[in-house]
Design goal:
This is Sensor domain-containing protein. By secondary structure, the chain is of the alpha+beta class. It has two domains: 1-38; 61-235, Protein Transport Mog1p, Chain A (3-Layer(aba) Sandwich). The protein is 35% helix and 24% strand. The termini are far apart.
Length: 239
C-alpha cells in the first residue's frame, strides 16, 4: 500500500471516532431532556392511604341501666309471674329521685342521683318494686350506708312492731348490701334490700300480701336474700 493510501485510512478512522463522540453527546442530551420532561413523583398522602376509624356508637345511659334489671328468666326463677317493662324514672315537681320510695323524706344521697330505671314484679303473694340508680360525685355505697342508718326507712311499725335487719349472703362484686323488714303487729309488712357497686345502686322493695306466720316470714326473708343476689348480678353488667 502506498503512503498516500495509509493517510486515507487514518483520515477515515479519525472520522469514525469523531462520529462516535458526536453520537455519545447526542445520546446524553436525549437522556437529559427525557428525564427533565418526566412527571414529578409525588409522595402519597398519609391521610389518603390511612383507613378511617370506625364510628363509636353513642351509649344510651338508660339502656345501660335497663341492662341491670332482672330479666324475664331471672324473675320467673324468683317466682314472679308478672313484670312491667323497665322504664326511666322521670323527675317532676312532686316526684323526685329516691333510692327507697318508703323513706318519708329524701336521703341526702338522693340529690346525687342523675338517672334511674324502674320495674315492677308480682305474683299472688308478693309485689317487688325494682329500681336501679346512677350517682354522680359519690360512690353508691354511701347511699347504702344512709339507708342502713335509717333502717331501710321502715318507720311505721305500729303497736308492738319492730324492724329487723336481715342478714345477707355475700353478694359477688358488691361494694355494700343491706336489707331490712318491718314486722308489724299484723306480720311481715314490707322489706327492702339495697345493693351498691361503683356508681350504681339497686333497690328492691318487697311487699308480702299472704297470710302471716313464722313459715311465711322465713319464706319472705329467704326470697329477699335471693333478690339481693340477683340485683348484685345485674349491677355487674355495667359497673
Amino acid at each position: 500500500m502506498r503512503v498516500r493510501d495509509l493517510g486515507f485510512v487514518r483520515a477515515r478512522r479519525g472520522g469514525n471516532r469523531e462520529d462516535r463522540v458526536r453520537g455519545w453527546i447526542l445520546l446524553a442530551l436525549a437522556l437529559v431532556s427525557g428525564c427533565s420532561a418526566a412527571e414529578p413523583v409525588v409522595a402519597p398522602s398519609s391521610s389518603a392511604s390511612r383507613p378511617s376509624a370506625p364510628a363509636v356508637p353513642k351509649v344510651n345511659e338508660h339502656e345501660r341501666l335497663a341492662a341491670t334489671m332482672l330479666t324475664d328468666s331471672e324473675g320467673t326463677a324468683l317466682g314472679f309471674t308478672y313484670q312491667s317493662e323497665p322504664t326511666p324514672f322521670i323527675e317532676s315537681q312532686n316526684q323526685k329521685f329516691a333510692l327507697v320510695a318508703a323513706c318519708p323524706g329524701r336521703l341526702p344521697s338522693d340529690s346525687r342521683i342523675v338517672r334511674a330505671e324502674q320495674a315492677t314484679w308480682r305474683n299472688d303473694d308478693y309485689n317487688l318494686e325494682e329500681l336501679t340508680a346512677q350517682y354522680s360525685g359519690i360512690p353508691a355505697a354511701d347511699a347504702v350506708g344512709e339507708v342502713a342508718r335509717t333502717k331501710g326507712c321502715r318507720a311505721n311499725v305500729g303497736s308492738g312492731g319492730r324492724i329487723d335487719e336481715i342478714s345477707l349472703p355475700s353478694v359477688p362484686g358488691a361494694d355494700a348490701a343491706k336489707a331490712f323488714c318491718t314486722i308489724s303487729e299484723y306480720g311481715t309488712d314490707r322489706c327492702v334490700v339495697v345493693v351498691a357497686r361503683g356508681e350504681f345502686a339497686a333497690a328492691g322493695e318487697l311487699r308480702y300480701y299472704g297470710i302471716d306466720g313464722p313459715a311465711n316470714r322465713e319464706a319472705t326473708t329467704a326470697l329477699l336474700r335471693r333478690v339481693a343476689i340477683a340485683l348484685g348480678q345485674g349491677l355487674g353488667h355495667v359497673a
